[in-house]
Amino acid sequence: MRSASERASSPRDDAIRLLARREYSRTELAQRLAARSHSPEDIGGCLDALAAEGLQSDARFAESFLRSRVMRGQGPAKVRAELARRGIERELVTATLAEAEREGEVDWFELAAVTLARRFSPPGDSPRERARCERFLAARGFDFDQVRHALERLGAAE
């Protein structure tokens, strides 16, 4: 149970406390503040001020989120969907992924190959085993070409 002083905290205090732990998208932060019974007007003003001060940034959140998902071996389709679900605009998602590729921070083909190799030993010639590998990568958000590349690399490792 929260104390009376915590219940009386301002949206800014709550937002700063949340942002001290990790980056949040504007949408996520608004949801968290609303759950703490702050008014929509107060939340909007607070988030505008935090963004103006550079304390909250959807671009910074998207970059951080992308890095964390690449470390987990997730593909571009899944990353796009997750960022959209967290309220990041499509243009910003596209720009963030493109910038990461341009800067060499992520190679989706190589990531698919590494992710598959971590999970599976070289696939046999069985269509069933190959299908398992394909489903695994597709579920992680990799496209057909990336899946095919990963399967070729895994097969070459035999």
UniProtKB/TrEMBL annotation:
InterPro entries, A to Z: RecX_HTH_1st, RecX_HTH_2nd, RecX_HTH_3rd, Regulatory_RecX, WH-like_DNA-bd_sf
Annotated compartments: Cytoplasm
Principal subcellular localisation of the protein: cytoplasm
Segments forming domain RecX second three-helical: 57-97
Pfam family, one: RecX_HTH1
Keywords: Cytoplasm
Keyword Cytoplasm tagged: yes
All copies of domain RecX third three-helical, residue ranges: 105-151
Residue ranges annotated for the RecX first three-helical domain, each copy included: 12-48
Entry keyword Secreted: no
Family: Belongs to the RecX family.
Functional summary from the UniProt entry: Modulates RecA activity.
Entry protein name: Regulatory protein RecX
Originating organism: Billgrantia kenyensis
Gene that this sequence comes from: recX
